[in-house]
Each structure stands twice: as C-alpha cells, then as structure tokens.
Amino acid sequence: MTRCDIEKSALTTEEWLKTFYSGECAKLFKQAGYTVPHVSKVDIHYSLPSKGAARGSRSQRIGEAWVPECNSEGRHTILISPAIEPDEPARSLEILGTLIHEVVHIVVG
C-alpha cells in the first residue's frame, strides 16, 4: 500500500491517520534508522491542539506531540488540528506532513 492508496472515504480521519502512522510513517522512520512506538502506545487525535489552532491566530499551531508523562495511560499523544480539512489532496498531504513532524518529536524528543 502506498501513501496515496489509503482510502480515506471508508475511514474516519483519526483511523486514516493511525493507518498511515503504523504503515508508511513507520516504514519511513525505519529506513532512516529510527523506530516509532507501536500504534497501541500512541493516541492520535484529529482535534484542537492546546492553543493557537484557530486560523487567523498568530501562532496557528496545527499539531502537537505530548510525552507519555502527560497522558494518564502513559502513552504518547499527537494532536492534529481540524483547521486543516482533508477534503483536497494537497490538504491531506499537509495533514500527513504535520503527523510526520509530530512523530519526529516523539522519536527524537
């Protein structure tokens, strides 16, 4: 399965992100010599980050990665802002790029 073959229409955005994370994203990091935590140890949410997520705000934060110590279940948490709507292919790539960026924070701190 390639990055573009993941059929979004049959999945929720969160399921689509988790599928990409555990498949193509994990392969990408493995090729670079890194291991991502198993998807069962990562919460990925398509929801507002802590602040600055609204379009028009100065920071326009569109993603966040939280360490396990901030999660009551001891899991990593990634938040991707719904300010990026995945309706167009270019916007879908922006969401996946944001996810990859946040995974870098998880992998290298």
Explain how this protein is built.
The structure is a single chain. The protein is α+β, with helices and mostly antiparallel strands and 109 residues long. It has 2 helices and 3 strands. It has a 3-stranded mixed β-sheet with strand order 1-3-2. The chain is globular, with a radius of gyration of 13 Å. The N and C termini lie far apart (29 Å).
- The helix content is 25-40%
- The largest beta-sheet arranges its strands as 1-3-2
Strand content: 5-15%
Kindly provide the radius of gyration, computed on alpha-carbon positions and rounded to a whole number of angstroms. 13 Å
Structural class: alpha+beta
N- and C-termini, Cα separation: 29 Å
Count of individual beta strands: 3
Low-confidence stretches: none
**Main sheet: strands, sense, barrel:** 3 strands, mixed
Morphology: globular
* Rounded mean pLDDT score: 83
What is the tally of helical segments? Answer: 2
